[in-house]
Amino acid sequence: MTIDDKQTERLMTAAQKVFFTELREKVRKMKSLLSQNGLLGKAETGELRRFFHSIKGTASTLGLGSIYGIGDKWEEELDRTGDDGLDSSAVSDIFAVLEEIEKLAYSFEEKESVSDDMAECADYVNTQVRGKILIIDDDTAVLKLLENAFTLEGYKVYICDDSVAAMENIAAIKPNIIILDIMMPEMNGYEILEKIRSKPEYADIYIIILSSKSDVADRIQGIKAGADDYITKPFAIGEAIARVEMIMRRSKYYKEKLLKDCLTGAYSRYYFNLRISEETERYRRSGTIFSIALLDMDHYKEINDQFGHYAGDLVLKELAAFIGRNIRKSDSIYRYGGDEFIIIFPGTDCNKAYEIIERLRKEFVNKPVSINGKELYVTFSAGIKQITGKEKSVEQLVIDADKAMYQAKKSGRNKVMIYEEEMGFQNRSKTLLIVDDENTILKLLKDKFTNIGYNVVTAEDGKSAVSIVGKIRPDVILLDLVLPDMDGLEVCKQIREKVGEHPTRIIVLSGRKEKECIEKMKNCGTIDYITKPFLIEDLEARVLKALNN
Predict the structure, then answer these.
(1) CATH assignment at residue 366
(2) What integer is the mean pLDDT of 390-417?
(3) How far apart are CA 194 and CA 504, in angstroms?
(4) Rounded CA gap, 481 and 530, in Å?
(5) Exposed/middle/buried for 257, CB within 10 Å: 0-12, 13-18, 19+?
(6) For the residues 219-228, what does the mean pLDDT come to?
(7) Does residue 246 carry a pLDDT above 90?
(8) Chain Cα centroid distance, residue 544
(9) Rounded to whole angstroms, how far apart are CA atoms 413 and 202?
(10) How confident is the model over 57-73, as pLDDT tens digits?
(11) Strand ranges in 27-176 using DSSP code E only, listed in sequence order
């Protein structure tokens, strides 16, 4: 819905009444300031200047040209005064101007009462909450205008006229958009903006600066400080609404791309990390338990090899859609990586989560996926973990669920298992050999898989790798094709000769994407081929899957 001209007129009238009511009080304070003595110093002159700046900006927005003209003229006059202060003659002139403003305020005749205005407008209120807006401004008239306008448009509006309390309001409300006035007492808008942008948890809040300063330099300063948009006074209320709507549409679009997996429609791993942190924090605060289930397709590689990647993608989409339709509204499914999905069960213990996943497993196995006219029956294995408070990190929850899933795979697949502490000691027999001359990747992966509980051995060249394989039998080898002393293909061949019948799985890491190269490595017995650049999360997931198969 868009506010029409008649509604805009009512909103403006309501805001004008608030403005003039407050203006009379502000004028009284300024007259009191002038009455203290005949001369005014720098501090008093600055207070007068802020008064004229404030009424100038508000009056221009509310269509009050006479008040705007007075404010504009005397703001400039006081700017020229500098640090010299005001003599008795200038004080007398300003006193006369204040008398004039006071007369204008008293002579203002509102067209309709505020209650009548808003009662009529209420018939048009958009009842759908479109987002939360926090308006931070010490100008009550502007607050009233924006609050009423955005409320009519269906937004949940919060107002804050105290710059010091702004951060507390942001923490409590968690708004989608903040409209922030620059000229505020005690703490100006730039200081508030700097505080907001210093906190990572507020990174996705859109901030619109509201200011009477229209110079290019001021706009640049605002954008550099972290504002997403800059509205200068006077502004048309329709313009402010249009800008907020544009931001909300853009925010929704990017959030959907960020929060949803484009292939399956499940939520993304990025969003899972946010939600699991929220649930963990809620557990720490209130003791509200939750469980997660990590699901992995059985024989997914064989599906890809036999029917092609299109079939593999179709199976993933079918599974995600099936789970999404059959879990509770409070539960949510996320694509964790490859063919792995995670479900979060808020307020649910591991036994109840087991019942849900077991029901899904039994139902899904009887729902064939149609591929090129053929019906393919697919299964999955799952591991479940309930938070206990003993976990060292959020990641530990996933690690424990993965260990339970590994036991489900090991027990014959197409099973669901709940994590038990004894499972944590069963990975030490698994060995991963990382062959790469890039020390950063070596250290990163070594730390990662050592912490999970695997034996990790590293080699920086081909000869060292072949030598190590001659002494031990790694379960999985992560092999970079570009090594300082040997070609990766030759290293792979020599490793295959060394391990013999031992089921060592080799994963290739390479910047080469040619089909010929990929085919050669596949013929050499590798199980996966990861091209650079890659996401470290994806690499970890694929190595972990190879270790657990």
Answers:
(1) 3.30.70.270
(2) 89
(3) 54
(4) 11
(5) exposed
(6) 86
(7) no
(8) 27
(9) 43
(10) 777 777 788 888 888 88
(11) 132-136, 156-160
Distance (Å, rounded) from C-alpha 96 to C-alpha 364?
83
Has residue 112 been placed in a domain? no
pLDDT, tens only, 315-365: 999 999 999 999 999 999 999 988 999 999 999 999 999 999 999 999 999
Average pLDDT over residues 430-435: 88
Extract the runs of DSSP E, i.e. beta strands, from 320-420.
332-337, 340-346, 369-371, 374-376, 380-386, 416-418
Do 282 and 380 lie in one domain? The reply is: yes
| Residue 423: predicted pLDDT | 60
Distance separating alpha carbons of residues 507 and 512, to the nearest angstrom: 14
Q: Tabulate helix, strand, coil % of the chain (nearest 5).
A: 55, 15, 30
What is the average pLDDT across 152-163? Answer: 86
State the DSSP H helix or E strand holding residue 84, giving kind and residue range, or none if neither.
none
Residue 529, φ and ψ in degrees, nearest 5: -140, 110
Cα 161 to chain center, whole Å? 27
296: three-class secondary structure by DSSP: strand
Distance between CA atoms of residues 97 and 74, nearest Å: 9
Distance CA 79, CA 52 (A): 11
Whether 46 and 74 share a structural domain: yes
Range of the domain at 52: 5-107
Asked, for residue 323, whether it belongs to a domain, the answer is: yes
Looking at the structure, tell me whether residues 137 and 231 fall in a common domain: yes
User: pLDDT > 70: what percent of the chain?
Assistant: 90
| Same-domain pairing of 437 and 527 | yes
Q: What whole-number distance in Å separates Cα of residue 82 and Cα of residue 42? A: 8
Kindly state whether residue 119 falls inside one of the protein's structural domains. no
Give how many domains the chain has, as a whole number: 4
Supply the mean pLDDT for the chain.
83
Q: Which 3 state secondary structure label does DSSP give 483? A: coil
Asked if the bond preceding 503 is cis, omega within 30° of 0, the reply is: no
* Strand locations in 279-396 (E): 290-297, 332-337, 340-346, 369-371, 374-376, 380-386
pLDDT higher than threshold 70 for residue 82: no
The continuous run of DSSP H or E covering 548 comes out as helix 536-548
**Residues paired with 479 in a beta bridge:** 435, 508
Cis, bond preceding 484 (omega within 30 deg of 0)? no
Give the dihedral of Cα atoms 507, 300, 419, 424; nearest 10 deg: -20
Of 393, 425, 457, the one marking the end of a domain is 425
Task: Say which residue the tokens 């490859």 belong to.
Answer: 338
Contact between 293 and 334 under an 8 Å Cβ cutoff? The reply is: no
Catalytic residues: 339
Q: Give the domain-ending residue among 107, 138, 170.
A: 107
What is the phi/psi pair of residue 280, to 5°?
A: -65, -40
Domain containing residue 489: CATH number: 3.40.50.2300
pLDDT at 462 over 70: yes
Query: What is the model's pTM?
Result: 0.48
Is 450 a domain residue? yes
Digit-coded pLDDT (tens) for 271-312:
899 899 999 999 999 999 999 999 999 999 889 888 999 999
Q: Based on the domain organization, do 245 and 284 belong to the same domain?
A: no
Same domain flag for 364 and 456: no
